Amino acid sequence: xxxxxxxxxxxxxxxxxxxxxxxxxxxxxxxxxxxxxxxxxxxxxxxxxxxxxxxxxxxxxxxxxxxxxxxxxxxxxxxxxxxxxxxxxxxxxxxxxxxxxxxxxxxxxxxxxxxxxxxxxxxxxxxxxxxxxxxxxxxxxxxxxxxxxxxxxxxxxxxxxxxxxxxxxxxxxxxxxxxxxxxxxxxxxxxxxxxxxxxxxxxxxxxxxxxxxxxxxxxxxxxxxxxxxxxxxxxxxxxxxxxxxxxxxxxxxxxxxxxxxxxxxxxxxxxxxxxxxxxxxxx
Amino acid sequence: xxxxxxxxxxxxxxxxxxxxxxxxxxxxxxxxxxxxxxxxxxxxxxxxxxxxxxxxxxxxxxxxxxxxxxxxxxxxxxxxxxxxxxxxxxxxxxxxxxxxxxxxxxxxxxxxxxxxxxxxxxxxxxxxxxxxxxxxxxxxxxxxxxxxxxxxxxxxxxxxxxxxxxxxxxxxxxxxxxxxxxxxxxxxxxxxxxxxxxxxxxxxxxxxxxxxxxxxxxxxxxxxxxxxxxxxxxxxxxxxxxxxxxxxxxxxxxx
Lengths: 283, 255
Known about the structure:
The structure holds two protein chains of two kinds.
Chain A: E1 3-4, H1 7-14, E2 20-23, H2 32-41, E3 46-49, H3 54-62, E4 66-71, E5 75-76, E6 80-81, H4 83-90, E7 95-98, H5 101-112, E8 117-120, H6 128-131, E9 136-139, E10 146-151, E11 157-166, E12 171-173, H7 180-186, E13 189-198, E14 209-211, E15 218-221, H8 239-250, H9 252-264, H10 271-277
Parallel strand pairs in A: 1-15, 2-3, 2-11, 3-4, 4-7, 11-13, 13-15
Antiparallel strand pairs in A: 5-6, 8-10, 9-10, 11-12, 12-14
Helix pairs in contact in A: 1-2, 2-3, 3-4, 5-7
Chain B: H1 6-16, E1 23-26, H2 30-40, E2 47-50, E3 54-55, H3 69-73, E4 77-78, H4 81-89, E5 96-99, E6 103-104, E7 110-111, E8 114-115, E9 123-124, H5 131-137, E10 140-144, H6 170-173, E11 181-185, E12 189-193, E13 200-205, H7 211-216, E14 223-230, H8 236-254
Parallel strand pairs in B: 1-2, 1-5, 5-10, 10-11, 13-14
Antiparallel strand pairs in B: 3-4, 6-7, 8-9, 11-12, 12-13
């Protein structure tokens, strides 16, 4: 049953050295505040799982906390490389398990469905199966068609950022919902940061994505906790920061200084200012 | 006739290929610019789908990422990412996939994964993302890429997404039933796969571009179709709509 905690306690209680962790959010609702807390606490030898590693994993990889990255597209969207991730892979210091988006999405869904693997039609005529031995195949027992398979994603911990929790610990997210529901349901434990805690979700679509309190381990209120990603209806994506990150991450020394000033000597409360700066105008 | 840049005629020539009937899976960057230019000019009813899950989106500025809020705000509906890849892409609902790439070969296979050996990369690129399955599930594929010796390769170091494999019949042999790449739009010309061999063949050259220039920017001996057309130069409307779109986008992303 979901427990309301401080961010420090939620991460410390749920993420250990050597864990596999999925911090999900497909461009929208990326859990930056929680990721920064992981950096401050310094958990080591993590297996980081994310379809699009994004700046959040560039930061954690750059701080030397990851031993392996499981991913399907490792770039800074619309900008270029994730320089810290790229440098570690090129230097052979970071193990990778690389997939396509379709494979990762299917693998998260298989994890949520408590299946051992995902089956889909894909990876035809390409080289990734030659370098990733987890990409295999199965023959359909009904048609004889050979289909691609990948193991289910079953992380020790899922970390996501959502829009709201109610006082009972139920969680709601809307907009681009990515694979967050699947990630939480596939994981052994989950930490959810939210923009706000409300008495009642109020009027909403009956089909809004809801994670009931009994599927979530810890909830933390962190307004602005997705910045420089965004929270639909709260604040916009800080595209200028994504563009600026290219220069920061390109040089290891500049990167480390930025991390010292903005993450190590900071705390989750600093995210609220970002949320105000990029606030969606009140209607 | 107004002056225009090579990347502008590339985007405009790509946009002209799209119609109101297309259901288009859109990649970020040049594909997104071309698809939205089509929507803002001759194809207002085109259906644009981004892999973040947004169906029938109508952004007023180009998204920087595949999942900017603008896409969701203006979409008919937004679905989860597993649903996007399973029901909509694998389900065969998309007529046209629009891809870019870092490197391409003469059969329109693409590499966006790595330069050099996979285990000891010289340059590590972002990887495939949605492309491996977009390339096999969409009815047809348009590719948009600027030409250059380092991009148009005699042999790719890695195949990230399937074009026509090793030539005619490759896709069918793999059990792939879709058409694959039917148009490659570049900053110098347009290629289409040859009907007999599936090798990319120049069918239209942009105004003022020479055959030598095309060959100088390509790593394999370029084939030209028996009849090569001249690409129609961008008109004033196409250029102003494209430039306005880029200006709005730049202002929005700097904010």
